[in-house]
Write a structure and sequence with these properties.
By secondary structure, the chain is mostly helical. The protein is built from 17 helices and 4 strands. It has a two-stranded antiparallel ribbon. The relative contact order is 0.13. It has helices at residues 22-27, 29-42, 49-58, 65-76, 83-106, 117-121, 123-144, 147-170, 178-203, 208-235, 238-241, 247-251, 256-264, 267-277, 284-296, 299-317, 325-339, and strands at residues 9-10, 16-17, 110-111, 114-115.
Length: 342
Amino acid sequence: MQPRMSATLHRIDGAPATPSLDPMVRLVAHDMNAVNSVILDRMQSDIPLIPELAGHLIAGGGKRMRPMLTLACARLLDYPGTRHHKLAAAVEFIHTATLLHDDVVDGSDLRRGRRTANIIWGNPASVLVGDFLFSRSFELMVEDGSLKVLRILSNASAVIAEGEVNQLTAQRQVGTTEERYLAIIGAKTAALFAAACRIAAVVAERPEAEELALDAYGRNLGIAFQLVDDAIDYASDAATMGKGVGDDFRDGKVTLPVILAYARGSAEEKAFWHDAMMGHRIGDEDLARATALLRDTGALDDTLAHARHYGQRAIDALGGFGPSAAKAALTEAVAFAVARAY
């Protein structure tokens, strides 16, 4: 399928406008205040290190995209209650816990432009506080009282962990297939996007068809989001990314740009990618060569074309819902996810 989605929106006067999360932020601002109150309350502990470390990441400038998706989907469905506030907080705790664990696994030293918790407090503290936040998320799920919500979010948590392990075992394996890569990002990133959206339909007591539509929206948005992340690891800068440029390259993560460039490369280029992914060629000049190869082979452009394809699938999943401010905000969120690469 040829990607149809454009990363450019247009204002009413016809002038181009840069896609933004601002419409979603405005849409859910009141609800987000309630979610933030839950987050602040539930990250507290009699052990001072726990709120100190958790607060470092939670207050670190993240977009809160996943909980905002729960809130925006609830608005799409005209849900009048408040159950989604605690569940959106649970979604954010799951996400934050995975970030804490990821930074330990990856040995990262920057997250959103700040030093990572593992660098400041050490790996053991980061892992244990991540466990604490996972536990808090499950408390919030249980308090909601819906076995269906519990099943959706607990399954997502398990799938995320499976995806992370799959990625770990694929690390430095330059022969990783595109199919396996998509399975990895579908699990480690897209599963939580999908669950965050789907639970809104559960609390709103909407038909299963609407549950599945929101699941598809979130899942495809999550895949598009990760594809763009993997492209800008080579094509952006630390200020834009909030982490070190080329981290995936130096960590030997075989992402779609590398898979495509390796498949299209000469024997000499394949040898370069093998050596690089094995950690033998990770200097600045090697990163520059890798980036040049990704551009010359069209691997970066095609990765972004894949992102647009999945973004269009996300937008199409909303087709059954009528026009509304919530639908417009959810649609623009897709354009924003893709436009980060431009």
